[in-house]
Write a structure and sequence with these properties.
This protein is mostly helical and 275 residues long. It is built from seven helices and eight strands; from the N terminus they run αααααββββααββββ. Helix 3 packs parallel to helix 7. The N and C termini lie far apart (51 Å).
């Protein structure tokens, strides 16, 4: 609305608090970029910003280059924003589901004890040896259906799909619920069951229907980071604590709070009991 009617920018309301936060975030990002510029080592880039700055320097004579300062700021902002709410809410929702299903929590902790132990910190290599934990993380994302309809994409060429002609440049919105809750792929999809991602031998089973990070070539840029964060955070928590609900697990309501864009977990309380 503010983009369509700029006069709204000047009216009082909660949107001004949002704009204030956006401005502060942009200032923070610009300071971080400046710090990277001052310490940049072309032969030893440290992170995403360094690599982007190097690419900017290489393409500074290309007027059509996408590697610009403005695009760097926007991309960092996207990674910062999209990787904060999504990951934290997924973990929050996941813990609620583990409270609801203590038998699942116990199996994860047994796998943690067997593979990692109690004294060494979990690392990403551990995930390859923890099929049950990996299956639980996938099932959490499938079950909560965090972004039922992601942001629209545009077709890059004319497409014929199931008898429909979709012209180049058409905005397309995918319904991820249709695959995450497909009964042919996930028996009883309305039930939280890590077995959806395990074969008969207990090994992790991939599924082409798992599209929690959107679909197509323009799926979530931070998928690898999010998967790493969720595994490390959840295993660290369950390595050191047992989760105890304040009510009977049977009475825990896992119905999402719908916002129109996201499926957020309801508020709840719990106790962390040291192992």
């Amino acid at each position: 609305l503010c983009s369509a009617y700029p006069v709204l920018y000047y009216l009082p309301g909660s949107h001004n608090k949002f704009f204030k936060h956006v401005t502060e975030q942009r200032e923070f990002i610009l300071k971080e970029i400046k710090r990277h510029q001052e310490s940049l080592n072309l032969s030893n880039p440290q992170d995403f910003i360094d690599y982007f700055l190097i690419k900017m320097e290489k393409e500074k004579q290309n007027k059509n280059s996408e590697f610009t300062m403005e695009n760097l700021v926007i991309t960092i902002s996207d990674l910062f924003g999209a990787g904060t709410e999504t990951t934290s809410s997924t973990i929050k929702y996941g813990i609620l589901l583990l409270l609801k299903h203590p038998e699942v929590t116990a199996k994860i902790q047994e796998e943690i004890t067997r593979v990692i132990g109690r004294h060494r910190r979990p690392c990403m290599q551990d995930r390859n040896h923890m099929p049950y934990t990996d299956a639980v993380l996938h099932e959490i994302q499938r079950y909560i259906d965090f972004v039922p309809i992601p942001l629209p994409r545009k077709t890059t060429q004319d497409v014929e799909f199931r008898g429909y002609h979709i012209p180049k440049g058409t905005s397309v919105m995918a319904c991820l619920t249709s695959v995450l809750y497909d009964e042919k792929e996930f028996p009883h999809p309305e039930k939280f069951d890590p077995g959806h991602f395990l074969d008969e031998r207990g090994n992790f089973k991939k599924s082409d229907y798992f599209m929690a990070f959107s679909a197509g070539r323009r799926s979530c840029l931070g998928e690898g980071l999010a998967r790493m964060e969720m595994f490390l955070i959840l295993t660290n928590i369950l390595q050191h604590f047992t989760l105890k609900p304040l009510v009977n697990p049977e009475d825990i309501d896992t119905t999402p709070v719908l916002t129109g864009l996201l499926s957020l977990p309801p508020s709840y309380e719990l106790c962390f009991i040291p192992v």
